[in-house]
Amino acid sequence: MMGSSAFILIEREKYTPEKLLGDAIVAAFHADAGLYFDNDKKYKNEQFFSTTLNISCNPLGTENNQQFIFYIDGIENYEIHYEHDEDISGLDSSLSLYQVGCIEDIYGVEKLIFRFIYEYLKLNPTDYFWIPDYDWVYSLEDMQKLTSLPYDPNWCYRNPKSI
Q1: CA distance 72 to 101
Q2: Which residue from 7, 11, 4, 3 is spatially nearest to 100, judged by alpha carbons?
Q3: Integer Cα distance of 7 and 104 in angstroms
Q4: Which of 101, 118, 92, 119 is nearest to 6 (CA)?
Q5: For the segment 105-163, what is each residue's pLDDT rounded down to a tens digit?
Q6: What is the helix (H) or strand (E) element at residue 67, kind and residue range?
Q7: 49 near 76, Cβ under 8 Å?
Q8: Is the CB of residue 113 less than 8 Å from the CB of residue 134?
Q9: How far apart are CA 102 and CA 8, in angstroms?
Q10: What spatial distance separates the first Cα and last Cα of the chain, rounded to whole Å?
Q11: What gap in Å lies between CA 5 and CA 104, rounded to an integer?
Q12: How many CA atoms lie within 13 Å of 117's alpha carbon, on the beta-carbon side?
């Protein structure tokens, strides 16, 4: 389980870094999460490459604080191109998608990610939450189903179609 990354999958024609940034801030607000944004932009070849948000359960610096870094990727960032080589359960293979909003490591922050992703998908019901190590995606409908059940700390390690 350690070291698994996760992404938001967004239709290419709908993606802008500014919208992802704004929606991530609103999702953190509705998830009752802490948020730190220092506007440290990274550039490559004079093009905006990425910036980060730190999303946490408690104020930064608090002991035993669960937190994750959420990457806001630029359009010119070559890493955002999602190439689905095989069909992923629950994902329309005809979609042209970007993989953005990277969370480097989901281990240990599953509950915070659950709250954040649920709020994010409520704002963006056509986007998906993707965990490549397990090769499945969570839609808003999947997250709504999970919120109707008692919280499962291993939710993101299970195929959402089997719940």
Answers
A1: 5
A2: 7
A3: 9
A4: 101
A5: 999 999 999 999 999 999 999 999 999 888 789 999 999 999 999 999 999 988 888 88
A6: strand 67-73
A7: yes
A8: no
A9: 7
A10: 19
A11: 5
A12: 32
